[in-house]
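User: Run a structure prediction on this.
Assistant: Running it now.
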Amino acid sequence: MATLSEVSTSSFDRAVSGPSRAEIRVRAALVVLIIATWLLACVLGQVPSNLTALRAGLLGGRVPEVTIAHHDPPGAPIDYVDISWREGWWIAQHVQVASVVRPEEVEPVEFGTIPMPTVDGPVEDRLRELQPGVTIRQAEPQRAWATLFGLRTPLWLLLPIAIGSLAIVSLLISGREPRFATRWAWFWLLCMGPLTPIVSILFLLQGMTARPEDGRRLTGGWAFLILVFAPKPF
C-alpha cells in the first residue's frame, strides 16, 4: 500500500509535469509556421468579390492598378478573364468575367450558359472608361488555386499547411492528454474551416506549459455539435 507521502508526491508530479524542451520547440515552431502561412496567404491571396466593388473602387480612385489574366487566345469571340485588384493595404480582391468581344459570332443559346458576369467588349476598354488613369497589368492565367483561410491562394501554400497539419495530428494522437478538451473534442474543433488556424494555435499553446490535473473537459460529442451548428465567419 502506498504511503501518504508517496500518494502526495505522485499527485504533485502529475499536477506540475510539463512537456519536454523538444516538444515545446516543436509546438513553438508550428505556431510560427501557422502565423507565417496566414500572413503569406493575406499578402498573396485574394478574396472573392464582384464587378460592383471593382466599379466603385475605380470610380472612387481607390484602385490605381488592376491585374488581368486572359484564359482564351486573342481573337476568341468570348474571352474569360480573371481580374484582381487591391484597395490600399487591404487583401486583394478578384472576380472572373466573360468578355464578349464579338457578340455577332456567339450563338444566343451560349449566353445562357456563361457561368459568370459578362462585359461587352475588351475588359481593358471597360476599365479605362471607368478610370482613364488606371494601370492595367497582364498576368499569366493560373489553372489551379488553393483555398486557405477563406482566400484564394497560390497552390504551393498547401505544402506548409500539409506539414503543419500532419505534425498537429501526430501531437494530438501521441502527445500528452490535452487540456480543456478531450482528444476527440480537439480533433473536431481543428476541423472548423476558417477558424482552424486559431484553434490550432490554441491547441499548440495549451500543451506548452505544465498543467494541473483537469476537471471537466469538453467532450467529443459537444465539440462535434459546435462544428456542425456554430456559424462560420465566412
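Strands lie at 46-48, 65-70, 78-85, 92-100, 118-120, 135-138, 146-148, 151-153.
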